[in-house]
Design brief:
About 0% of the residues lie in helices and about 50% in strands. By secondary structure, it is mainly β. It folds into three domains: about 100 residues, Immunoglobulin-like (Sandwich); about 130 residues, Immunoglobulin-like; about 60 residues, no CATH class. One of its GO terms (cellular component) is extracellular region.
């Protein structure tokens, strides 16, 4: 009997005559006698449920299925299941073997992000798991994605301005030879907005939408969103008060009894500084300075 033959079916995407196809490849059961293969293509219709798309019997160690935008669309998670049997004795068949699910479309890596309000840039890779076809003869051989951000809010608060910012509003996916599950890729950086507010951890999402695609396959497709959780960080404080006592951001304490205009703080990374003006407020008996003005850029 043919039992487990370790066929190890794997799905990859290919361009055939300018059209996107999925190819299911599996190991031939050599040195067995001549063997036929039953290949069943299916897609995830709902969590845990599969819908049959196509089946065929072939002597080849591969099977193709075209992504036509109707029967098989971008956004589908596709499987192929392969069973081997000897020609002439179809009742002697191997156990069916499943491929891993192949997601056809745009992927973000990582699929979710947790970042902090610390000004750091985090790289987000946008990739297509299917090749990008060139519908015309001109230089339209790319897919442009419009990126947008949205605040998801908290249970106690309505959504507000997005808590993240992107380095680009659009990315172009240009065709390149498929490697692994990537047939085109671009990167964008994500940074948390430092809002100086104690507003707790907040959720935002990044959405992508193809811009006026010429290829019919991309027209009705919306990629999955990326969820970004922004971790609130405590805001630093510095003080200048009474006859000015000063407490710095890192907790140092000293006094400044002078009269004049002084630089209280300056950022080393951006155009931000605070000046204070101090005047004599102690009268004739004691020389005391007090804050009388402040200017911030």
């Amino acid at each position: 009997k043919l039992t487990s033959l370790a066929l190890q079916p794997v799905i990859a995407a290919e361009l055939l005559q300018g059209r996107v196809h999925l190819k299911c490849s599996y190991s031939p059961a050599s040195p067995e006698p001549p063997v036929q293969y039953r290949v069943l293509w299916s897609r995830l219709s709902s969590p845990g449920k599969r819908e049959q798309l196509h089946h065929e019997t072939t002597p080849q160690s591969f099977s193709y299925l075209e992504m036509d935008g109707a029967n098989l669309r971008l956004g589908d998670t596709v499987f192929c299941t392969v069973t081997a049997f000897r020609r002439g004795t179809p009742e002697q068949q191997s156990l069916p073997e499943d491929s891993k699910g192949f997601y056809a479309g745009i992927k973000f890596l990582p699929e979710s992000l947790e970042i902090a309000e610390d000004g750091r840039e985090h790289v987000l890779t946008v990739l297509s798991t299917v090749p990008i076809a060139c519908p015309g003869q001109d230089d339209s051989c790319k897919i442009t994605l419009q990126l947008s951000t949205e605040d998801l809010g908290k249970s106690s608060r309505a959504p507000g301005p997005p808590d993240i910012t992107l380095s680009a509003c659009q990315v172009d996916l240009l065709p390149e030879p498929c490697s692994g599950s990537s047939c085109a890729a671009a990167t964008v950086t994500v940074t948390a907005v430092t809002d100086l507010a104690q507003d707790g951890n907040r959720g935002s999402r990044i959405s992508a939408e193809p811009v006026a695609p010429r290829d019919v396959l991309w027209r009705a497709y919306t990629p999955r969103d990326v969820k970004v959780t922004v971790r609130d960080l405590p805001t630093g404080n510095c003080y200048s008060f009474t006859d000015p006592h000063i407490i710095t951001f890192d907790g140092w304490r000293y006094d400044n009894y002078k009269i004049g205009t002084f630089l209280l703080c300056r950022s080393e990374s951006r155009a931000f500084e605070v000046h204070v003006r101090q005047w004599d407020c102690g009268g004739q008996r004691s020389a005391t300075a007090c804050n009388c003005g402040v200017a911030a850029q």
